[in-house]
Each structure stands twice: as C-alpha cells, then as structure tokens.
Amino acid sequence: MKQQSVRWGERWPAPAKLNLMLRITGRRSDGYHLLQTVFQLTDLCDWLTFHAVDDGQIYLDRPIPGVAEESDLTIRAAKLLRQETGCRQGVRIEVEKNLPMGGGLGGGSSDAATTLVVLNHLWELNLPEARLMQLGLQLGADVPVFVYGHASWAEGIGEKLEKIEPEEKWIVIIKPNCHVDTKEIFSVKDLTRDSKSITIADFIAGQHQNDCLDVVCKLYQPVESALVDLGAFSEARLTGTGACVFAQFDSKEFAEQAYKVLVKKWRVYLTKGLNKSQLLEMLV
Predict the structure, then answer these.
(1) Which residue of the set 46, 72, 142, 211 is catalytic?
(2) pLDDT digits (tens, 9 = 90+) for 17-28
(3) Looking at 134, 164, 194, which one is the last position of a domain?
(4) pLDDT above 60 (res 226)
(5) Which of 5, 47, 113, 173 has CA atoms 20 to 30 A from the CA of 274?
(6) Is 17 one of the catalytic residues?
C-alpha cells in the first residue's frame, strides 16, 4: 500500500457484502454460532471522509438518527484503534450513508473497517492487516472480511477467511420494509444448527442454501414477499439474516429489466458483485 496515496479530506468507500450461502454447523459454548459462508463484495457503498482536527477528539458529522454517537461503529473503530496504539490524534468522520440499516449488507461493519484501514494510514500507525482484522473482530463478526477486502470462504464465526473467486455477476437487491434482528434469528429454537459442512467445490457446484431463510420468512412476511417477487426473474436468496434478498444475473441488461419492474413496488438496488473491494483498489 502506498502511504502517500492516503490524504485527509478524501472520500473512501465502505462496500456492501452479500452472503452467497450460509450454513450453521454448530454452536460454541459462549453462544456464538459456527458458520460456513461465502462473502462477496459489491460496488454499492457508503462513503467516508476523514478530516483532520487539532483538539485530539473523535467526532462524527451528522450522527445517524436513532444511533447514539458513542455506539456508532465508526466512532468505536477510531477509539479502539487509538486505544490499541496509544495514538493521541483525533478525527472528524463524515459518512455518506447509502447502505440500508438492518439489511444484512454489513453497512455498519464496512464503515468500521474503512475507518480502521484509512486511519491506520492517516495516523501513520502501520499496523499490519492481520492486526486490523483482529481489532475488527472486537467490533463485529463481519468487520474482518471488509478489512481483508476480498471475496472469501469463511468459517468459524465468520473470521476464518480464505480468498475465493466467485463469478462477478450483476445483482438486484430488494430491501423489504422491515428490520431483521440478527440476535432474534440466532436465538430461535427451530433454527437449523447442525448442517453438514461442505467444501468450496460443493458451493461452486451449486450448494448455496441459507439456513436462516425459513426462520426469517416465518417471522418477517415482507421478506417472503420480496423473495417471491424477485424469484420471478432469477433465483432469489437471503443475505445473512436479511432483511435484504438478492438475485444474480448473467448480464446487466437482464438485471436492469428486473430492476425496472421491481422498483415500482420495492426499495431496490442494482449493483455488481466484486471479488476485490474498491477500498483496496484505491490503496494500491
């Protein structure tokens, strides 16, 4: 990474992720679920700008309504990085929020990862990627993959990552008008927790179930309706615990056709799957 390429006042992407499959293979003694999943990034992003300050404080421009500033993952990431290194510098963080909250696209986790990665440069801390990923895991299970910045086969609680190269297809995402509570889904008694582990070859061959799907559809009718409407155009899947559902398309033309119909009824995003994040592309 080129240190000179990172400057105060520049906009940095925090991309969305999709879970192309999600299997729950067990549960740890601390309650965390053991998973197998495939992360792919997209060109749909939040955008963060980091401004220098003279007073050593950490600020957030325009806090997200309903989210206390001290609870915001970008603020927590900056404070954790400073705590880890003894850094005394401050920052004012500006977030252009495009990713929906509670959608399973990892928006807050991605914002936190971009904060860790960019401030590591701006504050000249020089922590290695592996350490940033460890810090990210303290903030949330999805943060490490955004620091890693590459499509990944993931195991454990989602922190054991291996680069893979799934097809970079066009994608239509629907965000139903509901907020799925991830903790609620993982606490449901009927949730499948004993799926057989599979291999990357199995996934490539077409095994891409999401073990959360049935539970989410039972509890959140709008998700089931979105799956039906999107499924009229291509195989519709749930990302993570939702609420967002998505479908892949072999061409932009077919994706646009679906988008134009669905946008009349739903909150819809047209995007492209990426195996390397735009954040990493900007840093090389």
Answers:
(1) 142
(2) 999 999 999 999
(3) 164
(4) yes
(5) 5
(6) yes
